[in-house]
Specification:
Layout lengths: L2 H11 L18 E5 L2 E4 L4 E4 L14 H13 L8 H13 L5 E5 L2 H16 L3 E5 L31 H4 L2 E4 L4 H10 L3 E6 L15 H11 L3 E5 L11 H5 L6 E5 L9 E5 L1 H4 L18 H16 L2 H19 L4 E5 L2 E5 L8 H5 L3 H13 L2 E2 L8 E2 L6 H14 L3
Parallel strand pairs: 3-13, 5-6, 5-7, 7-8, 8-9
Antiparallel strand pairs: 1-2, 2-3, 4-10, 9-10, 11-12, 12-14
Helix pairs in contact: 2-10, 3-10, 6-7, 11-14, 13-14
The protein binds pyridoxal-5'-phosphate.
Length: about 425
């Protein structure tokens, strides 16, 4: 069956025809038959260079031989035991070694679960009720973080989804990104804040990059007010380098959340941080957290193989950085909008200056983005279908792939 027919059928069976909203591309999404390296092949027989990469996990591309081998070897031995496994010690040890702020970790099954648990832990540890997040920051799909952007720091959070209780998000305040003063003002007025959660590099509307000193300011301000600093590194972890944004910018959060890359393409999440905080998690402490699939051996095997590969090939980060720089050069030549990149994260914004925060990103010309996105697809390049999702590269993208992407940017920006 063709993609268009499959989508007609899917719409009868699943809300919007999809398993996650961003996939509901109009008029219909393409259905993938298989993937390998940097390429996706659709059921319609079309091949795309993939710059979406499942929204972040696949830093080594599709079906990387070492990750595939690790999964296959694990599958032979079973894929779910409901008991501890040696593998979780390997992966926990690697994550802890790579992140000076992380003394202990707990594995979960998704990034959403990780931020949900980290927020509960922060509340349990501090005994305080409120949390602060960044406007437009994304931490998954659970109630506490589904707060409408646009409500200011002085107002109570407003639900961003039907079914989320106003009472719940009333405990979530928001401040703009790159605005340490707004956080200082809020914390000076509100003594009931347990944690400030932030994507150190905004990956779900960007990338939008932190200005010089911003992350260090956040560390200082939160510490001065006895508020835990949570870095949500679900995208940035192992993406902007070993140790993620916290090592790259040299700022130690109290807690950090992970997902995506640490599972090598299989479902995973993790949260970790200072020992005295993590010791509060059940069964060693009173903050309850549990999961049937937590630390499942297949995800651990895929994740560990991925992290080992990155450790053994530290040059990949420089290589990926050079690749996005090459794309940037053509995009900038086009003199239309702004281009932002950080290692293998990159995005072209239809707005003159690079955005500093969510409000800036809202000013982008979305229709121009739509035309650009379609033109790129016609040129054989699949970008995330939104002005507000970052693009990704993987180690599987070849020099030829990069040239094709760069050329397509050069022509499609004028679509
Ligand atoms: C993807 C993402 C999440 C949610 O992770 P899921 O595995 O999709 O639940 C949370 N935070 C950030 C920063 C993310 O990019």
């Amino acid at each position: 069956m063709k993609s268009s027919d499959l989508f007609e059928r899917a719409k009868q069976l699943m809300p919007g025809g999809v398993s996650s909203p961003v996939r509901a591309i109009r008029p219909y999404p393409f259905y993938v038959e298989r993937a390998a390296g940097s390429r996706l092949t659709t059921v319609d027989g079309v091949e795309f260079i993939d710059c979406c990469l499942a929204y972040g996990p696949l830093i080594l591309g599709h079906v990387h031989p070492e990750v595939k081998g690790a999964i296959e070897r694990q599958i032979e031995k079973g894929w779910l035991y409901g008991t501890p496994t040696p593998l979780e010690i390997d992966l926990a040890g690697t994550i802890i070694e790579d992140h000076p702020a992380v003394d202990m970790v707990r594995f979960v099954s998704s990034g959403s679960e990780a931020t949900m648990a980290a927020i509960r832990l922060a509340r349990g540890y501090t005994g305080k009720q409120d949390i602060v997040k960044v406007e437009g920051g994304f931490h998954g799909a659970h109630d506490a973080v589904l707060v409408k952007a646009g409500s200011g720091a002085t107002t109570l959070g407003v639900p961003d989804s039907a079914g989320v209780l106003a009472d719940v998000v009333a405990h979530t305040r928001q401040v703009p990104y790159n605005d340490p003063e707004a956080l200082e003002t809020l914390l000076a007025r509100n003594e009931d804040v347990a944690a400030f959660i932030v994507e150190p590099i905004m990956g779900n509307i960007g990338p939008v990059l932190p200005e010089d000193g911003y992350l260090a300011d956040l560390r200082e301000i939160t510490a001065a007010h006895d508020v835990l600093l949570i870095f949500d590194e679900v995208i940035t972890g192992y993406r902007v380098g070993i140790g993620g944004a916290q090592v790259r910018y040299g700022v130690k959060p109290d807690l950090a959340t992970f997902g995506k890359i640490i599972g090598g393409g299989l479902p995973i999440g993790a949260f970790g941080g200072r020992r005295e905080i993590m010791e509060m998690v059940a069964p060693s402490g009173p903050v309850y957290q549990a999961g049937t699939f937590s630390g499942n051996p297949a995800s651990l095997a895929a994740g560990y193989a991925t992290l080992r590969y990155l450790h053994e090939h530290p040059g990949v980060y420089r290589h990926l950085d050079e690749a996005t720089r090459a794309i940037e050069e053509t995009a900038l030549d086009a003199r239309r909008g702004s281009f932002v990149r950080m290692g293998s994260l990159f995005k072209h914004f239809f707005r003159e200056a690079p955005p500093r925060n969510y409000r800036d990103v809202q000013e982008c010309d979305r229709e121009a983005f739509s035309r650009f996105w379609k033109a790129m697809l016609d040129a054989g390049i699949f970008l995330p279908p939104s002005q507000f999702e970052t693009n990704f590269l993987s180690t599987a993208h070849t020099r030829t792939d990069i040239e094709k992407i760069a050329d397509a940017y050069g022509s499609c920006l004028f679509a």
